[in-house]
Design the sequence.
């Protein structure tokens, strides 16, 4: 597997503090009987605060399911997810929604923005949903960092794919969430735009102290992270710190071999 | 291809559900109309067939003849071979006095012969047929209205207005006799009937036994003899004409409902095709031809139309039977009947349902054929989204229809002589402008949505703002959805405005031009004598409670050129004080001896104008008259009016036809009424109507008609609401991923539901506002076109209520789609491809 992305410059390891979010003996099964699929088997993993962690694994390994459970989008079958010091299993739908609104940010592969809103309105959406006013200085900083100053009045249909994804990143950052979950954020982008977005995500960790958990299948994308966790058949099999594209590829080959 | 289509239908059955409902309701209305009229006919036929069963031979006067059958003929019929019994049917005026001692109804009650025994044609509801000269039977409506029960004593006037007292022996259903049901009926034993009504002839002679040939031979030529069956057939045919008229009226409303259904169907198919672009393209990729795709869509429409129509027939049966029950419980004198589902009903219903559905699907089906196979590989974009740019055709249609429609409406309202033709012009104008609005609506959605959405956008928080944006994002779709509601609300507002104008006009005319408190006149249809008794005016003038008592007299007269007209006059002191006609030309000052004033309609028909001279034939020979003025028609006074002194000189002492009384200021309404009752007690045949009562009656009548129209239009509005629900649920399907994203970043379920409710609210209010604007504008134009003196009134309360109700209904329509949207799993929706 080769990647079009350029390798990142030498990555310094982050100092792992208390985990921002962790999964404790989490299992999840879809379907019943013969049709049952074990998406997650007894997963125990913690994600450090102010670190950029990538989750990798072959198709069907359960990496997206793990991300959805960590983010409070999906429920677990057994075990628990703890975000900060909140056990997500104890929350009803409304509280979960409020938690997502206030403490979590998202960047998805696609369909990331509301077509009826301008870039600025999209960025401010989570804050407005929460009824919070934007910290203007922070908003300006985020906008400048993602380089969207002159695009704020445009609607998504008037932006390129990379620009759209940067708007999505800005939206995730602007509410200063405890964790940002990114699901294949570069999946729909060309290599240059993808590199831009990844560099931006990494700098938000380094410079702004953000915590990011990202699912990807691209070794180059994963190499931007501080740490890579590998999943296969719903279980954590190995992990890697300070990854490079080559070391990630090696691990993947070992997993599939 | 057939299999693919059917599989698609099954897969999309939920999405097509509202389409089916729209067709079902529209077709149900049509089928219901047929079922109702068929049931009415059957009830009438059955009722009559039952009674005609008993008649062996009926003798009738020749067709088209007004003359009755001389009484002497009855003996001849009785003597005919085989006849064991024969009775003559009598029909004439027999005014029943109500509990207040005055005649009942505007027209005298009908006096009928009600024979006992086998020849009793009517159904006895209670009691028995009248026996002997001191018993009568009453129809149920009159007995209920006047609170006369079996055993009560009632007073009936005979042909010379002498009172006779009778005991009520029973209540008889005269439902098959439409005149008797309208005017009320008093049934006597046959001999008494002749004496009371003062008629010496029969309208019909019925026999038990005998044959048509034998009876015909006995009565001689010049009369028709029929068997009982033929008689039944003839009478039900006469009644069928009435039900046909009702049916035609109802079908007009059914047409409106069908039109709205067609809009809903068209919209649904357009959205479904757009959403299935990839599916259609895949079909094309694997080798389906354009023709096959086109046929597939039409087949789908046909199946949906067929299912909807079949359900519609079932709904129609329910509606028809329900309507008959409703009419009967509201006092309509219709016989009960079994449900009739004629083959014609089913055929028409299915044909209409199928044709409308398939026609509505043709444009979407053509759109489906234009999908390129390569679209299967492309990323799907939101169908129908983006800014709407009207094409040349749309602009041309808007300008053409809008211009022609406005022109017709303006010409009809202000540029044409008032009346029916002007109203037709306004109606045509309205229809054309509506077409223009249909063409223009996608353009209007943007600004209208912004205006309507201003409030929810400002106060509804983020969900409110998103909802307003969503309502505006697919202009075509929103336009068609809202237009469907515009139809019903528009017609409703139009009727409301016309009704309000009618009510206001009635009130003002009475108040301004002729402010009297009571009008006294004889009952209509008393052929011989329409004038009032001589002492009445004096009796009223003797009462101190009245400040003025006026008499109106009239007489038919011939003008110099041979034209016939009715000449009338009013008590001289009334002019300028109480009676203030609105003059088109000339004035009251010129109205002296040797002159006349005319209402504009009569003036036009006689070819006279202010200053014209003519002569009228009087008892002293032709007398010259000069026209002193022409006044507006529609007031209390009409025709060719002479000064009182001239009238008396020309025609001698003529009894008054109307007497008007004005209560003195300071005398209370009750005291005035009591004085009036006291003064008229000796004259039971006069009808007293107070201005307040007649205003009230007119208002009630207008309200009733408006309510019936409203009820009939209600279905069209309900269908439009299903359209809103439909569009919304299809949009929800389309925006699954978007909703999931919103939920992921923190929109609560409740906020999601609120967002969809607001979207429905905005769409409904947009449609309603458009309808209200059109309805009010054309209602005012129609009112203006109706008569010269029309008053323009806008029932603001009602109009606001229409918009508010439409908004509320829109929110209700959003309940199901929004529940479904809120239930959707976020993770699945995000993964959904």
Sequence:
């Amino acid at each position: 597997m080769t990647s079009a992305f350029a390798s990142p410059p030498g990555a310094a390891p982050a100092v792992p503090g208390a985990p921002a979010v962790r999964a404790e003996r989490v299992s999840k099964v879809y379907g019943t009987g013969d049709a049952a699929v074990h998406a997650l088997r007894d997963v125990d993993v913690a994600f450090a605060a102010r670190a950029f962690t990538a989750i990798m694994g072959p198709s069907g390994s359960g990496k997206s399911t793990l991300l959805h459970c960590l983010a409070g989008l999906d429920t677990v079958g057994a075990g628990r997810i703890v975000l900060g010091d909140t056990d997500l299993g104890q929350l009803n739908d409304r509280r979960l929604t409020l938690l997502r609104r206030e403490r979590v940010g998202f960047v998805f592969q696609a369909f990331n923005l509301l077509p009826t809103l301008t870039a600025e309105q999209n960025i401010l959406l989570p804050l407005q949903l929460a009824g919070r006013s934007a910290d203007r200085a922070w908003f300006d900083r985020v906008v400048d960092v993602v380089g969207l100053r002159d695009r704020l009045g445009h609607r998504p249909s008037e932006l390129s794919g990379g620009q759209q994804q940067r708007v999505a990143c800005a939206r995730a950052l602007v509410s200063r969430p405890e964790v940002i979950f990114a699901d294949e954020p570069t999946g729909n982008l060309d290599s240059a735009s993808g590199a831009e977005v990844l560099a931006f995500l990494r700098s938000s960790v380094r410079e702004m102290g953000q915590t990011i958990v990202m699912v990807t299948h691209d070794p180059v994308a994963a190499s931007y992270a501080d740490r890579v966790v590998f999943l296969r058949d719903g279980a954590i099999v190995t992990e890697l710190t300070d990854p490079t594209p080559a070391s990630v590829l090696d691990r993947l080959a070992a997993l599939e071999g | 291809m057939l299999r693919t289509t059917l599989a698609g239908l099954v897969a999309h059955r939920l999405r097509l559900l509202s389409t089916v409902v729209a067709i079902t309701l529209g077709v149900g209305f049509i089928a219901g109309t047929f079922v109702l009229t068929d049931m009415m006919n059957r009830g009438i036929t059955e009722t009559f067939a039952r009674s005609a069963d008993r008649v062996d031979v009926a003798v009738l006067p020749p067709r088209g003849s007004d003359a009755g059958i001389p009484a002497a003929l009855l003996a001849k019929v009785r003597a005919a071979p085989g006849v064991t019994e024969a009775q003559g049917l009598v029909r004439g005026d027999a005014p029943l006095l109500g509990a207040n001692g005055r005649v009942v109804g505007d027209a005298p009650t009908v006096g009928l012969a009600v024979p006992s025994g086998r020849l009793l044609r009517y159904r006895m509801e209670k009691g028995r047929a009248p026996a002997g000269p001191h018993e009568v039977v009453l129809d149920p409506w009159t007995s209920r209205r006047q609170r006369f029960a079996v055993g009560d004593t009632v007073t009936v006037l005979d042909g010379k207005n002498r009172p006779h007292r009778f005991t009520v022996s029973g209540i008889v259903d005269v439902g098959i006799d439409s005149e008797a049901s309208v005017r009320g009926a008093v049934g006597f034993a046959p001999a008494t009937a002749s004496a009371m009504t003062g008629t010496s002839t029969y309208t019909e002679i019925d026999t038990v036994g005998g044959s048509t040939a034998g009876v015909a031979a006995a009565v001689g030529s010049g009369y028709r003899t029929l068997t009982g069956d033929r008689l039944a057939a003839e009478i039900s045919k006469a009644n069928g004409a009435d039900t046909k008229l009702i049916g035609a009226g109802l079908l007009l409303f059914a047409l409106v409902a069908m039109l709205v259904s067609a809009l809903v169907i068209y919209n649904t198919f357009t959205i479904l095709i757009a959403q299935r672009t990839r599916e259609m393209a895949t079909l094309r990729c694997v080798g389906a031809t354009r023709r096959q795709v086109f046929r597939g869509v039409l087949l789908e429409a046909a199946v949906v139309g067929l299912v909807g129509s079949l359900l519609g027939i079932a709904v129609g049966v329910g509606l028809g039977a329900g309507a008959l029950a409703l009419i009967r419980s509201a006092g309509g004198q219709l016989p009960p009947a079994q449900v009739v589902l004629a083959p014609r009903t089913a055929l028409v219903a299915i044909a209409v349902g199928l044709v409308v559905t398939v026609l509505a699907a043709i444009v979407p089906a053509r759109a489906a054929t234009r999908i390129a196979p390569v679209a299967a590989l492309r990323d799907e974009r939101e169908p129908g989204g983006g800014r709407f740019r009207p094409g040349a055709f749309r602009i041309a249609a808007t300008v053409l229809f809008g211009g022609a429609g406005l022109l017709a409406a303006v010409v009809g309202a202000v540029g044409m002589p008032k009346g029916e033709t002007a109203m037709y012009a306004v109606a045509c104008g309205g229809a054309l402008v509506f077409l223009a609005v249909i063409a223009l609506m996608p353009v209007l959605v943007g600004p209208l949505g912004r205006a309507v959405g201003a409030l929810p956008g400002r106060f509804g928080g983020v969900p409110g703002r998103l909802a307003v944006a969503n309502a505006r994002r697919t202009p075509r779709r929103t336009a068609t959805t809202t237009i469907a509601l515009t139809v019903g609300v528009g017609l409703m507002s139009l009727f409301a405005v016309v009704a309000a104008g009618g009510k206001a006009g009635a009130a003002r005319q009475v108040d301004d031009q002729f402010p009297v408190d009571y009008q006294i006149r004889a009952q209509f249809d008393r052929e011989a004598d329409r004038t009032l008794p001589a002492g009445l005016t004096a009796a009223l003038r003797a009462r101190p409670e009245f400040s003025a008592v006026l008499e109106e007299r009239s007489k038919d007269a011939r003008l110099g050129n041979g034209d016939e007209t009715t000449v009338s006059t009013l008590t001289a002191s009334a002019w300028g004080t109480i009676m203030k006609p609105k003059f088109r030309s000339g004035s009251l000052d010129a109205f002296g001896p040797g002159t006349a004033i005319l209402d504009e309609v009569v003036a036009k028909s006689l070819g006279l104008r202010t200053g014209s001279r003519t002569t009228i034939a009087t008892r002293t020979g032709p007398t010259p008259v000069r026209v002193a003025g022409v006044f507006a028609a529609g007031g209390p006074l009409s025709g060719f009016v002479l000064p009182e002194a001239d009238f008396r000189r020309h025609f001698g002492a003529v009894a008054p036809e109307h007497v008007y009384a004005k209560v003195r200021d300071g005398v209370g309404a009750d005291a005035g009424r009591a004085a009036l009752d006291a003064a008229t007690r000796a004259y039971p045949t006069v009808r007293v109507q107070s201005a307040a009562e007649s205003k009230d009656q007119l208002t009630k009548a207008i309200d009733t008609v408006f309510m019936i129209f409203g009820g009939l239009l209600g279905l069209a509005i309900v269908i439009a609401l299903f359209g809103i629900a439909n569009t919304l649920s299809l949009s929800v399907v389309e925006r699954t991923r978007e909703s999931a994203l919103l939920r992921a970043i923190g929109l609560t379920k409740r906020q999601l539901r609120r967002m969809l409710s607001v979207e429905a609210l905005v769409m409904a209010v947009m449609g309603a506002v458009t309808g209200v604007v059109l309805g009010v504008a054309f209602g005012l134009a129609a009112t203006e076109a109706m008569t010269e003196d029309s008053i323009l009134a806008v029932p603001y309360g009602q109009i606001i209520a229409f918009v508010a109700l439409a908004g509320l209904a829109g929110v209700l329509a959003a309940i199901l789609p929004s529940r479904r949207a809120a239930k959707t799993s976020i993770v699945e929706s995000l993964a959904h491809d």
Chain B has a mean pLDDT of 83.
